[in-house]
Write a structure and sequence with these properties.
It is an enzyme of class 1 (oxidoreductase). The chain has 446 residues and is of the alpha/beta class. It has 3 domains: 3-214, Rossmann fold (3-Layer(aba) Sandwich); 224-306, N-(1-d-carboxylethyl)-l-norvaline Dehydrogenase, domain 2, CATH 1.10.1040; 309-445, 3-Layer(aba) Sandwich (Rossmann fold). The protein has helices at 3-15, 30-39, 51-58, 69-77, 113-123, 142-155, 193-206, 216-246, 251-258, 283-292, 298-308, 310-324, 352-362, 394-398; strands at 20-24, 43-47, 81-84, 95-98, 131-134, 164-167, 186-190, 210-212, 333-337, 366-370, 402-405, 423-426, 442-445. An 8-stranded mixed β-sheet has the order 3-2-1-4-5-6-7-8, sandwiched between helices. Helix 6 (142-155) links the parallel strand 5 and strand 6. It binds nicotinamide-adenine-dinucleotide. Nicotinamide-adenine-dinucleotide binds next to helix 5.
Length: 446
């Protein structure tokens, strides 16, 4: 086949929905995408190096709370979806999507080793006519300057003629009700025009709005801009929280007032620090890359500095409030309410609650946590707390010297929980002070 007939052939298979898709990495991003394509009529295999995940998925079970097992079971039983650990099956796929992790290293440098390893696995099996799309968040240039050479050198095939390559950032927001994988618009940038066209054709099968851009680098950069925007704005309100606190002004009330302006303002909310797989990490992909070009991304670094100082600020507010109650942090019983980094999800990645627990414990407090989404803490790359969640009840909360509200789970909004609790440090503005169940409670916003 000629290069244009490779592209035409793939385009025809996509239009006829007879194409098959392999999605590498079946985590928070890869799994919903795989199910969406399967539900849209394509044949999908989900590849993962984690055997336990592969078995779990093929048995129709879920390991992510917001993805119901029914969805997985239906996709498996219909024959549209199957998980596998066998990379040789990639040879049968028309398109291969890469959704592997992109962590930061110990010195906050990007770690693209998962992308490179996956690229090498694909390269040895790459066939003419296949489309490869990278979805993992990364710095600009990764697709064209790192992945493309790995694929070409490992396969002997040429990009743009034999195979096609694009980047499309993932905008998955676990727990969100108003948008889902199908309705979140998808930005797509190929390393050449034909790759963009084919990637747009593929995503259009399953996604309502696909937005082509002129290059993979623009698509890579768009994802980083989105997350830097969030990080910087969250840092801004976190800093203003400390400024207004010194003036005895409630930042939450200020935000409510400001957001009545119908244009030119978008509310962001303070908290005990940044969490999740994206916002605390992704901005540093760009600041690292910027340095290579002799540029310093000062907003990114400053926002990182402010946001990472928030757990310490909450701890100092807790210490001051305990002091007002005639107590020291040392030997005080403190309950951290919430381990998840955001409300109503079972995701504790990079959660500031870990920092709070660790910092309070290191000052001699007797710290427990409560989170209905996490019966016990699991070891992470950084933490191994070995704690079990205490039961959520007013009786339990009253038995602590202080309760630090770290996550705005719906379960924690029941005001009767806080009746008679001596001291509540609320970082999420969910506990009412006036007219609530108990007048003896001291409420400190932090
Ligand atoms: N979680 C989110 O909400 C989110 C949102 C937008 C973008 N992202 C980005 O998407 C990418 C994936 O994130 P995630 O949250 O899905 O991660 P995850 O850890 O939930 O899933 C990654 C999966 O890849 C598997 N894996 C690791 N190495 C592999 C390899 N060599 N071959 C096959 N499988 C492998 C792991 O076992 C795991 O199941 C990251 O770049 C992340 O920054 C995540």
């Amino acid at each position: 086949m000629t290069n244009s007939s490779h592209a035409d052939h793939l385009q025809d298979r996509l239009l006829a929905r007879s194409a098959s898709i392999g999605i590498i990495g079946q985590g928070y991003v890869g799994l919903p995408l795989a199910l969406l394509f399967a539900e849209s009529g394509l044949s999908v295999i989900g590849l993962d190096t984690d055997d336990a995940k592969v078995q779990c998925l093929n048995a129709g079970r879920s390991f992510i709370k917001h993805i119901g097992p029914d969805r997985i079971r239906e996709a498996v039983e219909s024959g549209a979806y199957r998980a596998t650990g066998n990379f040789d099956e990639l040879a049968e796929c028309d398109a291969i999507l890469i959704c592997v992790p992109t962590p930061l290293g110990r010195h906050r440098e990007p770690d693209n080793s998962y992308i490179h390893a996956t690229g090498r696995e694909i390269a040895t099996r790459l066939k003419a006519g296949q489309l490869i799309v990278l979805e993992s968040t990364t710095y600009p240039g990764t697709t064209a300057q790192e992945l493309q050479p790995i694929l070409e050198e490992g396969s002997g095939l040429s990009c743009g003629t034999d195979f096609f390559l694009a980047f499309s950032p993932e905008r998955e927001d676990p727990g969100r009700g108003d948008y889902n994988t199908r309705t979140i618009p998808k930005v797509v940038g190929g390393v050449d025009t034909i790759s963009t066209k084919l990637a747009v054709a593929m995503y259009s099968i399953a996604i309502t709005k696909v937005v082509p851009v002129s290059s993979a680098a623009v698509a890579e950069s768009a994802k980083l801009l989105e997350n830097i925007f969030r990080s910087v704005n969250i840092a801004l309100v976190n800093e203003l929280k400390t400024v207004f606190d010194a003036m005895d002004i409630d930042v939450w009330e200020v935000i409510e007032a400001a957001k009545t302006k119908p244009f030119g303002y978008m509310p962001f909310y303070p908290g005990p620090g940044l969490g999740g797989h994206c916002i605390p990490l992704d901005p540093f992909f760009l600041s690292w890359k910027a340095a290579e070009h002799g540029r310093w991304a000062r907003f990114i670094e400053l926002a990182g500095e402010i946001n990472t100082s928030m757990p310490a600020w909450v701890v100092s507010k807790t210490a001051a409030a305990l002091n007002d109650h005639g107590k020291s942090v040392k030997n005080s019983k403190i309950l951290v309410l919430g381990l998840a980094y955001k409300p109503n999800v079972d995701d504790d990645r990079e959660s500031p609650s870990y920092e709070l627990i660790s910092e309070l414990s290191s000052r001699g407090a007797l710290v427990d946590y409560c989170d209905p989404y996490f019966p016990r803490t699991a070891p992470t790359r950084k933490w191994n707390l070995g704690l079990e969640s205490v039961a959520l009840s007013n009786e339990t909360l009253r038995s602590y010297d202080a309760v630090v509200v770290a996550t705005a789970h719906e379960e924690f909004k029941d005001q009767t929980l806080y009746a008679g609790v001596p001291l509540v440090i609320d970082t999420r503005n969910i506990v009412l002070s006036q007219g609530s169940a108990d007048v003896d409670m001291t409420l400190v916003k932090a």
